[in-house]
Design a protein that fits this description.
By secondary structure, the chain is an alpha/beta fold. The protein is built from 13 helices and seven strands.
Length: 305
């Protein structure tokens, strides 16, 4: 008899659970498992995974094509990105991450008005945080001045560390590789000196914008040793670099961060296309042309033709 009396209660609880779940924002997330730029958005989504849902659409892949520049000799044919039609529909530039609202992706007006797609990785981190009102643990500070400071710091990390990653891998001249590495190390040293006791950037107890901006590349830096040798290991010979290594260990200790990391052996195989100069992507093309990765041009560096 007790089963009959509590059944409506259980049903009501289940109905409210479904209703609550349905009220969470739902996104269509066009990503690529190997891409560190997209990894930034994945970190933000996992950070707030109790406050929103998403459907992952693997939107970039690789295909071999005959070399378009016969002066570039590699061990195999050149590799070019192919891009999912959903990505090209919502972001004609063909870049990940791209986040799309349910109403926009499905074209279903009952799900609300159409919203513009969200692109650019650093913007995506802030967008996810704003979409859920900061959730339980905000990524961004509440103070506008502190938010501005974090945006500047994330931009600095992007230019001084993340972009230099590609110099070490894409450039085939050993002197240029070393120059890129030394610049990257200087950027990591500066980052470590600004942890303010940590464990996360600016003395935070949880990761914020700057931590998520850097981590995808920090996690991948050991590929240098694999493709460029032991002299490309990240040193620990300054207080800033030692603080950086402690920060990286603290990031890897977080389950929600660890689960976002790509399988290491698969990533090593993937990045080999950059290391031997055969990758043809907007970022790789910009670096090969003598620019920084963040200076890619959507027209000049396009790989769709």
């Amino acid at each position: 008899s007790s089963g009959r009396t509590d059944r409506p209660v259980r049903d009501d609880m289940a109905a409210r659970h479904v209703a609550t779940k349905a009220m969470k924002p739902h996104l269509y997330y066009m990503s690529a498992w190997f891409c560190p730029f997209a990894h930034r958005a994945t970190l933000a989504l996992e950070h707030h995974s109790s406050h929103l849902t998403w459907e992952w659409i693997e939107a970039l892949g690789w295909e071999k094509r005959r070399a378009t520049d016969e002066s570039l000799q590699t061990e195999h044919e050149n590799w070019y990105h192919f891009k999912a039609p959903e990505l090209m529909k919502h972001n004609p530039l063909g870049m990940v991450p791209t986040l799309v609202s349910e109403a926009t992706f499905t074209g279903d007006a009952s799900k609300g008005p159409a919203k513009p797609p969200v692109r650019e990785s650093l913007v995506a981190i802030e967008f996810v945080d704003e979409l859920v009102g900061g959730g339980d643990v905000p990524i961004m500070p509440s103070c506008p001045y502190e938010r501005a400071k974090m945006r500047v710091a994330a931009d600095v990390v992007n230019k001084k560390v993340c972009s230099k990653y590609y110099h070490v891998l894409v450039r085939q001249d050993p002197r240029e590789q070393r120059e890129g590495f030394e610049a990257l190390i200087a950027g990591l040293d500066e980052f470590g000196s600004q942890l303010d006791g940590g464990p996360f950037y600016g003395g935070r107890s949880t990761p914020g914008l700057v931590d998520y901006a850097l981590f995808p590349w920090a996690h991948r830096l050991p590929v240098f040793v694999h493709y460029r040798g032991e002299q490309y290991a990240i040193p620990k010979n300054t207080p800033g670099l030692r603080a950086y290594h402690e920060w990286l260990a603290a990031m890897h200790a977080l389950p929600k961060v660890r689960k976002t990391c790509p399988p290491w052996d698969d990533y090593l195989a993937h990045i080999g296309r950059y290391a031997d100069g055969s990758a043809r992507s907007k970022v790789a093309n910009a670096v090969r042309d003598g620019r920084d990765a963040h200076q890619y041009d959507d027209v000049k560096d396009d790989t769709s033709h």
